[in-house]
Structure formats: C-alpha cells, structure tokens
Specification:
By secondary structure, this protein is of the alpha/beta class. It is built from 13 helices and 17 strands. The strands form 4 sheets. A 7-stranded mixed beta sheet has the order 4-12-11-10-7-5-6, with helices on both faces. It has a 4-stranded mixed beta sheet with strand order 1-2-3-15. Strand 1 and strand 2 form a beta hairpin.
Length: 400
C-alpha cells in the first residue's frame, strides 16, 4: 500500500514531503530547500515557524486547548475587539476555516432580512469565476460547474452574473435579493482584481436597494495586498466580511465580521461552532495581529510587492512566448501563462520554487508577507530560469 492509499483520492498531490520550515523556506526529507511562494495557499502569512506565533501557541497549549462556546473565552474577546478597532465591524463570529466564515456570512445576511420581516429576501448574487469554499452552500455561491458536479441539486438562492458587468448585476436584483457577495481580488478564479469603481458602485447599489454587501477576503485579506484588507484600496466598507487563511498564520482560524445592524438577526441559538474561537486559535490570531499591525509592517509588504511586481513585468517583456500578463496586487500575484500553467508550475518546482495553480491558466504567487526584497529577487531568478527552460528557443535547441 502506498503512503497515501488510505486517504480519500480528492487531491492531486505533488510528490514532495516537507519536514520543516524556516521563514519563507521549506525543507524536504532529503534536506532540499524550497522557496515557498505558495504559503499554504496564502495561509502562512508570516512564513514558517515564526517565533512570535510559536511562542504564543506553546504558551497557550500549556494552559487550556478547548473550552467550547459554553463559557467566556478571553482570547475571543481580545481578538474581536482588535479586529473591530481596525475595520468597519462591530461584531465577530469565530470559525475554523474560510468556508465556515462564508457560511456564517451567508446566514447573517439571510437572517437579517428574516428578522426585518422579509423572509423571502434570501437570494445572494455572486460573480462568475468566484470561489467561496467547498460546502454545499459555498459551492452554490461560487457557481462553478466543476465543483457542483455530482453533488445533487445546487443549493437554492444563489445567482451568478459575469465578472465586472455592472449592467448585468443591476438587472439581476429582484425583490428576493438579500445581498451581493464578491472577492475584491479573485484567487482561484485567476487573480482577477475588481476595480475600485466597481466596488464603489456595488456599495451604492446595496444602499439604493436595501441590500447587504459581503466581501470575501479569505485569501486577499490580512495584509496580502499591502493594506490590512483589500477593500480599503477602494475606500468602500462592506456590511459583512469573511476572513480566514492569513489571520491564523497556519493555524485553522476563520472569522465573520459584521456591522451591528447586519448582525442584528443573529441572536442566541441561530448559529454556532464547537471548535470556533478555541483558545489555541485565539492565541495565534492575536499573535498574527501583533505582527501585521506593527508599525511599518504593511509598508514593508508594499515595498517588497513593488520589487516583485516590477521583476515579473520585466520577465513578461523578456519571455513573451511564456508570459501573457501579470495580475494581482501586493503579494497576491499571478502569471497568466501562454503555456499550460501546469507546465510552468512544474518548471518552477524544478528550480525549488513553490506556487499554486489558479483558473484562467494562471499561476499564483503568494509569498509570505515577511518575504524580503532579497528573497523576492531570488524568487524572480528562479522564475527566470524556469521561463528559459520553457521558452521556444530552448525547446527548439533541445529537439535539434
């Protein structure tokens, strides 16, 4: 029996076995060092084995691991206050993942209208190419056929419109519409950035029709674009926001943030989680905020992102047969490839660099936020070598 034979066959795993991590590096069982620009799909926001996170987790592990939400959890009180202080939100619900945070966001929006005496307002409009999770509700919200296939009828109440099409969005609003849901920067959909103007128009639409605006910042939030949350670049605030991935720095943690008005329907008994907000997650979440909110940290992200983005633009000019476009913002970037993106991923892995595939033939590059300019340049050198190996002249020479 192979090492993975007893596992569900739901992942196409790379034949890599990592033993430990140090900052932006992963070390496999043979001692090979890989520059990790996948970051656990934007999860390891502060890299591997960050000393402040490690100490916070160890200190809490020696006290209490789990209490449930039958009792007060001081770490929840601290983290929720801190999140509310730096965002639009008044209320926070803690979960274990991005999908759970989105489930809470969906329920919050629907429950809001129910509590206001409008139980028929439960439809949520989303956008083609979106990815909101793998639960039955969130695959319906995402609307992608490849994730819906084989799981029975699509959960009702979700309607997709074309990405960036304001006329289609306005036309889709009905008396049953409760909320609009969007990722300010699509991840799985191909690192597609929503314009500031579109987000501003969405806010105006919600105000006009009495709808709630939900942002999915599971992947693009917690400093990844150079601001704490990506929507800040547009000067727009949502009513509800789902957060996960980077907020836990590698420990499972999700959160749904909302205004007091939007959360007004979520009274005792309407929602819950056994593990959500457990003391271990709260200790790590607070430690992540200690780092990300420190003076100069987000400025560092923006500075390194500029170095990385400019370097990728230069590679696009040098390898027009490999790179069609560079997408994204901050340290959430994508290479739209002219070769199959799987070939590009294989080529960068051969150079001991890790990335993540995305839709629209894009290769995602999601370096930890602690990446230095020097490490970004090292990553660029490895991408350059991968492009050289894949370029048409190199192929012709190899076949000669």
């Amino acid at each position: 029996m192979s090492a993975t034979a007893a596992l569900y066959d739901t992942y196409a795993r790379a034949p890599l076995r990592f033993e430990r991590g140090e900052g932006v590096w992963l070390i496999d069982e043979e001692g090979n060092r890989y520059l990790d620009f996948a970051a656990g799909v934007a999860v390891n926001s502060l890299g591997h084995a960050h000393p402040h996170l490690v100490e916070a987790l160890k200190a809490q592990a020696e006290k209490v691991w789990h209490l449930s939400n039958l009792y007060d959890v001081p770490g929840q009180e601290s983290l929720s206050r801190r999140l509310c202080a730096v965002t639009f939100a008044d209320k926070v619900f803690f979960a274990n993942s991005g999908a759970e945070a989105l489930e809470c966001a969906i329920k919050t929006a629907r429950r809001y209208h129910f509590a206001k005496g409008h139980p028929g307002k439960f439809h949520i409009i989303t956008f083609e190419g979106a990815f909101h999770g793998r639960t039955l509700a969130t695959i319906a919200a995402g609307g992608q056929a490849k994730y819906l296939e084989g799981f029975g009828p699509k959960a009702p109440g979700f309607y997709q419109v074309p990405f960036g099409d304001m006329a289609a969005l306005r036309a889709a609003i009905t008396e049953e519409t409760a909320a609009l849901l969007i990722e300010p920067l699509q991840g799985e959909g191909g690192i597609r950035l929503v314009s500031k103007e579109f987000l501003q128009e969405m806010r105006a639409l919600c105000d006009e029709f009495g709808l709630l605006l939900i942002f999915d910042e599971v992947q693009c939030g917690v400093g990844r674009t150079g601001k704490l949350f990506a929507h800040e670049w547009a000067g727009v605030t949502p009513d509800i926001m789902a957060v996960a991935k980077g907020i836990g720095g590698g420990f499972p943690l999700g959160a749904c943030l909302a205004t007091a008005e939007a959360a007004s329907g979520m009274v005792a008994g309407t929602h819950g989680s056994t593990y959500g907000g457990n003391p271990l997650a709260m200790a790590v979440g607070n430690a992540v905020l200690d780092v990300v909110l420190a003076d100069g940290f987000l400025e560092h992200v923006r500075d390194v992102a500029l170095v990385f983005r400019q370097g990728l633009a230069s590679l696009k000019d040098r390898f027009p047969d490999i790179i069609e476009d560079i997408r994204g913002d901050g340290l959430m970037l994508g290479i739209k490839a002219k070769v199959p993106n799987g070939e590009l991923l294989k080529a960068i892995r051969a150079e001991k660099l890790l990335g993540v595939l995305a839709g629209d033939n894009v290769l995602r590059l999601l370096p930890p936020l602690i990446t230095t300019a020097e490490e970004a340049r090292e990553g660029l050198h490895r991408i350059e070598r991968a492009c050289e190996a894949l370029s048409q002249p190199a192929r012709l020479q190899a076949s000669a």
